[in-house]
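Weekly sync, protein design subgroup
Attendees: M.S., D.O., the rotation student, P.L. (late)

Item 1: inverse folding check
M.S. brought a backbone from last month's batch and wanted to see whether the design step gives back something sensible before we order anything. D.O. pointed out we never logged the input encoding, so this time it goes straight into the notes. Structure tokens as presented (364 positions):
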């Protein structure tokens, strides 16, 4: 077992009702979530939704207007950024350019007044951990972007922080390298068991790294759940559209009984959902479903919608079809491609058969 794993101090992070504004404009409102000791959670949402503001408040770089941040048993309100025991990694590496790799990694240890010999041993351990053994004497500019980011990770964990914060850590790297570093980070986090919060706007990154996601939109938390639950049971239309792909049909509740709800759609089409929705007749609803829950058929059946094929695109193992309905609403269907999969001609009218048991309904 690694030395650092023995000394890692697992703490639970609790964010309670954090609210912050810049110049009167609320950037985050009443944000609450927990990261259990040793857990990895992703804060996910579109640009400007307030993710970095939450992270900065946890790190102690800003003081939120309201709310509490509790790490372990300590409320951090009166604890300085430096004394919080938090390791941070930013997108732009932020290594000290005039210090060598080893000096960069040793920096937090020097601040903690760790004796020189112990510092040297810890730096060596960190270099092996991030697979940069032998690079200690180089300057940051003599490393690739991926290597620099590994040094940033090593520096963040060298001081055995009780919390690791990562702000878009791999945003500047190309896709393949990002994936490699994500796998490495996951391995490292599991080995060390550091409570970790990662901020990203990349849903694939969030889903591959985190056990739970905190979905933010316009300064508010919309849902906190596992990646699969967020995908399968989105609580809001925003979450449904932000995670994965979603077809959205705007319609009106026509009639409902105990077992079914009939939705009228533009162009005299309709859809029967096999359950009673919590809406009154006449309500506007947005019905959503994933492309993989749509099958294209040559003939009409119940719960199929007529649409014209615009394009079919092979994407690795699947085939994605884009269609347009008479009223201009777009539809997307995807299927697993086999050796005999037939690709229809663009312009063909097809019938999109929707698995209505997988549809979600939100206020329109
Ligand atoms: N220093 C600042 N002064 C004024 N407004 C700010 C400041 N920092 C952030 N904001 C505003 O607060 C809101 C939230 O910003 P924040 O950086 O937290 O979002 P984000 O989700 O991290 O975005 P991104 O993914 O683009 O980094 C935005 O509307 C932003 O314009």
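Designed sequence read out in the meeting:
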């Amino acid at each position: 077992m690694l030395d650092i794993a023995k000394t890692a101090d697992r703490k639970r992070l609790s964010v309670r009702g954090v609210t912050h504004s810049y110049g009167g404009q609320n950037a985050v409102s009443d944000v609450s979530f927990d990261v259990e000791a040793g857990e990895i959670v992703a804060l996910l949402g579109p640009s400007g939704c307030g993710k970095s503001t939450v992270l900065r408040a946890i790190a102690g770089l800003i003081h939120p207007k309201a709310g509490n941040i509790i790490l372990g048993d300590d409320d951090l309100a009166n604890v300085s950024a430096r004394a919080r025991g938090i390791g941070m990694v930013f997108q732009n590496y932020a290594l000290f350019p005039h210090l060598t790799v080893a000096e960069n990694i040793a920096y937090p240890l020097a601040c903690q007044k760790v004796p020189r010999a112990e510092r040297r041993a810890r730096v060596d351990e960190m270099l092996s951990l991030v697979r940069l053994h032998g690079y200690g004497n180089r300057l940051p500019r003599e490393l690739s972007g991926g290597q620099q980011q590994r040094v940033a990770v090593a520096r963040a964990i060298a001081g055995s922080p009780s919390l690791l914060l990562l702000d878009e850590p791999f945003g500047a790297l190309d896709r393949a390298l990002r994936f490699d570093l994500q796998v490495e980070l996951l391995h490292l986090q599991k080995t060390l068991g550091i409570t970790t919060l990662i901020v990203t706007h990349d849903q694939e990154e969030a889903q591959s790294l985190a056990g739970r996601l905190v979905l933010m939109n316009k300064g508010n938390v919309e849902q906190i759940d596992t990646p699969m639950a967020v995908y399968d049971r989105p609580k809001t239309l925003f979450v449904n559209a932000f995670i994965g792909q979603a077809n959205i049909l705007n319609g009106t509740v026509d009639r409902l009984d105990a077992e079914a709800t009939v939705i009228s759609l533009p162009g005299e089409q309709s859809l029967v959902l096999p359950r009673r929705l919590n809406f009154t007749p006449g309500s506007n609803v947005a019905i959503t479903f994933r492309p993989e829950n749509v099958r294209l058929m040559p003939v009409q059946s119940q719960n199929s919608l007529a649409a014209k094929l615009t394009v079919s695109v092979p994407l690795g193992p699947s085939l994605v079809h884009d269609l347009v309905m008479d009223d201009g609403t777009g539809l997307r269907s995807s299927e697993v491609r086999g050796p005999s999969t037939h690709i229809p001609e663009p312009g063909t009218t097809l019938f999109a058969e929707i698995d209505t048991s997988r549809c979600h309904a939100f206020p329109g």
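Discussion: The mean pLDDT is 91. The first strand starts at residue 13 and ends at 22.
Action: P.L. to compare against the previous round before Friday.
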